[in-house]
Each structure stands twice: as C-alpha cells, then as structure tokens.
Design a protein that fits this description.
alpha/beta; N-(1-d-carboxylethyl)-l-norvaline Dehydrogenase, domain 2; 8-stranded mixed β-sheet; 12 helices; globular; KPR_N; 6-PGluconate_DH-like_C_sf; 2-dehydropantoate 2-reductase activity; pantothenate biosynthesis; EC 1.1.1.169
C-alpha cells in the first residue's frame, strides 16, 4: 500500500520506518531540500542497529495521491498543511498530534474528508535528518473523527502490521483526552526539571506534582482521575528511559507544544488550575528566555 507521511520529524521518520518494515511503500514529505536529498540517498536509519530502510522523500509542495496520508507535524504547523489537503476527499487522513487544540482547525473538514486521529504510546527521538530511534514500547491507537467509507475502513485495516500494530478505538474524544492527560503530566514536568520520565516515579516530590496535574486535567476533561492516574504511571514506566519531546524542545531552544497541551486545558475552564497554570507559565517563561525559538 502507498503511504504518504507529511513531516520529517521524529514521529514522521519513525512511522515511515515501521510501515516500511511491514511492506508498505512509504513517501515522507518534508520542507527542506537537504532532508529530501539525505533520505533519498540512503533511506531512513533506525537506531540502535543503524539499519537503513528504503523510504522515499519529496518536498511538501510535491504532495501526490497516496492510498493513505498521515500528518505527523506539530500542531502549530497544521494551519500551513491543511490547505494542501483540501482536494484529498476520498483518501483517509490520519492526524498524529499531541494535545487537542487541533480539533478546532480540523472541524471544517470533518464532514467532507475521511479524517482520523491517532496517538502513539511510545516515543520517537530524531538524531538527524535521516536517523531516528524508537523509545519505549506500545501501539498506535486510531479513532475516526468523521464517518468513513467502507473503502477507507479497509485501508486502515491494511495499514496495521506486526511492526506497526494498531488498535481501532470507537471513542475519539476519550482516546485524545486520555493522551492529553498523559502529556499534560509528563511533558511540562520533565521539561522544567530536564529529567527522564522515570524521575516522575522515583522522586516523591515530582510524583506528588504529577498527581496534582493529573487531577486538574481530569476535572476539566471529564475523566476519572483514579483510572487516569494509573494510566499515567503505566505510560511513565513504559517510557522510563525517555526524555519527553517537550524536554528535548526546551533543551534545543525549540518551540514547544505547551499551547496545545496545558494551554488547551486552561482555555476549557473558568476554574483556577493552580498547578497547570504554573506548569504552563513556567514553560512559556523558558521559551521566552530562549529568545528566538526555532520550529522543529
């Protein structure tokens, strides 16, 4: 099956590798000519074995018809991407973004396009333009945002392989909200203290703060704080050796996704969320102190 992946960041490259392992023909659409050249020269390399996988790269403006298109860019890049997808009415579009802030952007297209949402349980670490590493274990969860045709449903089922396991979820809201809680706990805390995920379990003070963030997020999103807290701890343990994407962004002086995560939660309530507000303001302060932030 021909799969197009928009975005040559960590998630895009890792998704390309795992789908290529499963026998799919994968094209990654990137923004820079340099990255296109490097990928086309030798494929995408997977750490730790540095085995190369035959992935093709094209520039975003060269976007063509695929059997399925996966959008693996940060939320703040979606407004530039969506106009390019207007004409792809009958092709499943899977959006792989953190947070829930992008739902408002996607809303105008959901009645006319075959749109799905996806979340990954594992992490991805980009080493350079053509080298990526999977951190942690897990699956990709996918749920439909719009009513899918029978053909699109068949296409989604064909996408799943042993190297890219997929679980189809019925409730997209619960799926995204639960992932948002996980992100709202892990990302800002690990970014603020520049620690691996495991520190949230090992440091009693970080563990206390993590539970407070979880409780506030669940209150706003209408989830059970008890069940969600157990899920957060499980994900932290599964990805204990990871540095979160926000942690890496702060370290590299890049723009973070704090608006799509903690910012989204704060906008959804009139209540005073003490811990979430502090986490949000603290990350924004670090972004400001970094000066001119780079996009990924």
């Amino acid at each position: 099956m021909k799969v197009g992946i928009i975005g040559g960041g960590a998630v895009g490259l890792l998704t390309a590798v795992n789908l290529t392992k499963g026998g799919h023909q994968v094209t990654v659409y990137v923004r820079r000519e340099e990255q296109k050249h490097e990928i086309n020269k030798g494929g995408v390399s997977l750490v730790p074995d540095y085995k190369n996988f035959p992935v093709r790269a094209l520039l975003l403006e060269e976007l063509r018809k695929e059997d399925i298109i996966m959008i693996a860019v940060k939320q703040y890049h979606l407004s530039d991407i969506l106009p390019r997808l207007q004409s792809y009415l009958n092709i499943p579009l899977i959006f792989l973004q953190n947070g829930m802030g992008h739902l408002e952007l996607l809303s105008p297209l959901k009645d006319s396009h075959q749109m799905l949402l996806g979340v990954l349980e594992y992490g991805a670490l980009k080493h350079d333009d053509y080298t990526v590493e999977q951190t942690g274990k897990g699956i990709c969860r996918i749920a439909s945002l719009s009513e899918l045709s029978a053909t699109s449903n068949q296409t989604i089922h064909k996408l799943a392989t042993s190297s890219y396991p997929i679980n189809l979820e019925e409730d997209w809201y619960h799926m995204l909200a639960q992932k948002l809680v996980v992100n709202a706990v892990i990302n800002p805390l690990t970014a603020l203290f520049q620690v691996k995920n495991e520190s949230l379990l090992e440091n009693e003070h970080l563990l206390w703060l993590a539970e407070k963030l979880c409780q506030e997020a669940c209150e706003v999103l209408g989830l059970s704080s008890g069940k969600s807290w157990e899920i957060v701890k499980r994900i932290v343990y599964q990805t204990k050796e990871n540095y979160s994407s926000m942690c890496k962004d702060i370290e590299a002086g890049r723009r973070t996704e704090i608006e799509a995560i903690s910012g989204y939660i704060l906008k959804k309530t009139q209540c005073d969320l003490v811990y979430t507000s502090f986490a949000y303001r603290s990350i924004k302060a670090l972004e400001m102190n970094a000066g001119g932030l780079k996009d990924d």
